[in-house]
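Quick entry between incubations.
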Amino acid sequence: MKRILSIIVTVLLLACLITPALAYSSERSAALVVDEVHVFSESETALLLEKTESLSQKYDCDIVVYTSPNYPKETENESLDYILSQNNYGSGEQNSAIMFVYFEAERRVALMTQGFAEEVYTVYGLDYFLDDPIVKFNEGLWYKGFDLYLDKLDFAFSTILSGEKSPGEYKKEKTADFVVDEAGILTEEERIKLNEKAEAISARFNSDVVLYTVQQYRGMSVEEGAEIIYEENNYGAGDDRSVIMLLLSFAERDYDIMARGYANNVFTDYGKERLSESFKPHFKNDKWYKGFDAYLDRVEEFFEYEQKGTPVDVKSDPYDVMTAKDYLITIGIALIPALLIVLVMKSQMKSAVAQDMADAYIPEKGLNLTVKTDRYLRKDVSRTYSPRKSESKGGGGTSTNSGGFSHSSGKF
Amino acid sequence: MATDVTNYQCPACIAPLRFSSDSGRLECDYCGESYTVEEVEKFYAAKAESAAAAYEKKIDKFEKKQQEMAAEGFEEDQNLIQFNCPSCGAELISDETTAATSCPYCGNPNIIPGKLSGAFKPDYVIPFKFDKNEAIKALKKHYAKKPLLPSAFSKQNHIKEIKGVYVPFWLFDCDTQGNCKYRATTSRSWREGDYICTETKYYDVERGGDLQFNNIPVDASSKMPDEHMESIEPFDYDELKEFSLAYLPGFLADKFDVDSEQCRVRAFKRAELTTEQEFLNTISGYDSVTKVGGGVNVTGQDKKYGLLPVWMLYTKWQNKDFLFAMNGQTGKLIGDLPISWPKFFGYFAGLWAAFSGLFIALRMFVL
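Done. Structure below.
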């Protein structure tokens, strides 16, 4: 009898231990990441799933990412209720859940909360969670957008649970140095020196100063690569995540100078072109360290000019001094009108020339035109690539894209 | 005794008469009398005819003699002919084409009417309107405002020779008929983002028609450089006169030695090119026009033979010959001038320095 009782007690104890885990997994009838629209790759889905499950366990709240081809019910609210109830989302005593849904046909994103998640939502507001991801979605970066949302959610939950009743500003910590040399063109000693210098300038002006080299950035354009590096490594200082980044891609010898936030005021479109002159002569001779060092000096000077109230721009350019090359080019151009004038003077010395025309001997009635036809045949249209650099130079200022980034790129 | 050379003498004092470009009359430099061309023609018609007949006889004799000399193995320059000055009797030699000249001994004008009679008689003449002094003035003006002219050329240079010449010209009338085809294009460009788009439209264009030309002049003297003669065009044909020997005293005159058929080729070529240009002038509104076919046909047999007035000025500098020609009717003067290469490079360097300074200043202070 004792043996039977001990078995029953053991089973009951085991059942008590297992039940919460079973309850957690058995109540939900769908995964935390459901991608009916297929905006994620398989690996991206796996990464998001891992992250949502981890966060759901951490905060005892189902954190759901859901894409749907359209509203399954008539209205958005009904559809959200349907998805939540149909899949039995909700966890913990309060049956907490926060669900981020994308409806493809309606081009809508929606956030739904219940239980403890509602408190987080109330403190931080909808904009906090949706604004930045939407920017990514508009650029087609679905994974990046949802990943950013999850990071923000993580930050919001942790601040609320730590007892803060007002929203903190989400800010990821940098995951890389200021100087990253994936292309391997610097010695470690050089890289450290440059890193220290970049870090000092970053701290002084509260704007990250980043030097980054790659062999080739995943087949993307150098501008796209720079933005991804910025996001992946969580660069950016201050509330506006200010950065000035120089990216070198060695496969095509492309460079990109990218600015964001406060740095956009410091490095105008014209200013970025000027800035590139600091490293180009060195890079042309493969003097990488010298080029980066000169670049950092120039970056620091740009910040100083901005803080004095005159950022480097078309109409306030302290670097607009003529170089020996400028003098040579100007003198070379001056050769053309001088040569033309003396050739005209020379042609005046010869006046005995055979006359091929005889129009002086045409009677007054002139030409009797009997045939006059003009017939349209066809048309061709050609397109030549010609970026609008001169326009931004002419007007000054900084042109930014929808993500708030400004770029100036070229070959080194 | 009949002579092959004549001159026109003043009926009042028997001094030689000279055609004056100012008054358009024949003037006597000694007694100051002057006569119209018609009056002189009337006085001297018989004398000119007699001189022409004598010239014919002389030519016959001359040719016979040449044949005899050739048979004996002697060679003589067939282009030279001997005659006597009717004023001083000096024995003179001239080339075969010279029809009017002056005696180097007494300076009096001589005319060989036989050179300008029969088949060689010109239909028309345009009398000189500018005299020698005006030709010299025009040459000085030609030197002015020529920064590359060597200073020594205008300062030290003296005109070696200046002569008023009635140059023989063939004047051709012709008609052109043509039909030309062209490929024409228009293009426009605009910007689309980072691309410049260029639209080019293609057209077939055709022009046809006819055109008439009157009196295209072609120099019929092999002694005269063709570029000079074409460059002093045009002459004003409203002042064409029936030919008379009375216009010649005081000037040189040549008979033609290039026949009309040779000259016609040049006249027709000019008519063809001009017609094509006239067609082109009717095409507008395109950015480019290229001829792709068709052509111009020139026809016409009418021609006239005229003597047109030209001042020829000759000078030599640093062992190089410089020849200038002035239209004796309109005063248009042309002729190539020497170039001072130190001045050429001096101006070039100066202008280069000036433009360099200007561009550098613009670059530093304006742009």
